[in-house]
Design goal:
- Helix content is about 25%, strand content about 30%.
- The strands form two sheets. The chain has a five-stranded mixed beta sheet with strand order 3-7-6-5-4, with helices on one face.
- A hairpin with a 5-residue loop joins strand 5 and strand 6.
- Helix 1 crosses helix 2.
- The longest helix has about 40 residues.
- The N and C termini lie far apart (about 80 Å).
Length: about 190
């Protein structure tokens, strides 16, 4: 008996007809909540590490760590990353390139003269407080607060939205990073 496959909408029907050998491969690219939370924590740990490396080895060590973080965590190989840092102003409010993000984290870039290096401020701890996580297949989005502890113990809170995309290697990459200070009526 020979079989013939036809597609009807999203369904595949197998009918008698011409011979055909079909092997289907399905890769489940669904992102889990645990993966998202681990990626967020890794980002926080990396921020603290950049600060520690700056204190220990200066700007060159901090820059090397920041570059490694950008390459490991962000999806620049997928296209522009939608990066809007907390303390950036026009005309460089939005940073879609790796160079723009690196300048924000470690400063010392004449093309981004206003950047003082957000990651160089001596951060000692980061706590993520998600308001919501939305996952759809190989894409995830989060929104909530990030609490960052400074060297004096003072905590800075920022509103943070992240978008994650699974890349072809199966790694979770940040493709959206939006930070802002919480609204205050004062």
């Amino acid at each position: 008996m020979t079989l013939r496959m036809i597609t009807l909408g999203a369904a595949i029907l197998t009918l008698p007809g011409a011979a055909m050998a079909v092997t289907a491969t399905k890769i489940d690219a669904a992102i889990t909540q645990a993966e998202v939370e681990a990626a967020q924590q890794a980002w926080g740990d990396a921020l603290v590490q950049i600060s520690a490396d700056f204190a220990e080895g200066g700007i060159d060590q901090a820059r090397a760590t920041a570059e490694a973080v950008l390459d490991a965590a962000y999806g620049y190989e997928l296209g522009p990353v939608l990066f809007k840092p907390t303390l950036a102003e026009a005309p460089q409010t939005f940073r879609t390139t790796r160079e723009g993000a690196l300048a924000y984290f470690v400063g010392h870039d004449d093309s981004f003269a206003e950047d003082t290096g957000f990651a160089l401020k001596g951060w000692t701890e980061v706590e993520i407080e998600n308001a919501a996580i939305f996952i759809s297949g190989d894409t995830a989005m989060t929104m909530g607060h990030v609490h960052i502890t400074g060297p004096d113990g003072a905590v800075t809170t920022v509103d943070k939205t992240w978008g994650f995309q699974r890349d072809e290697a199966g790694d979770l990459r940040i493709v959206l990073h939006h930070s802002s200070l919480p609204y205050s009526a004062e």
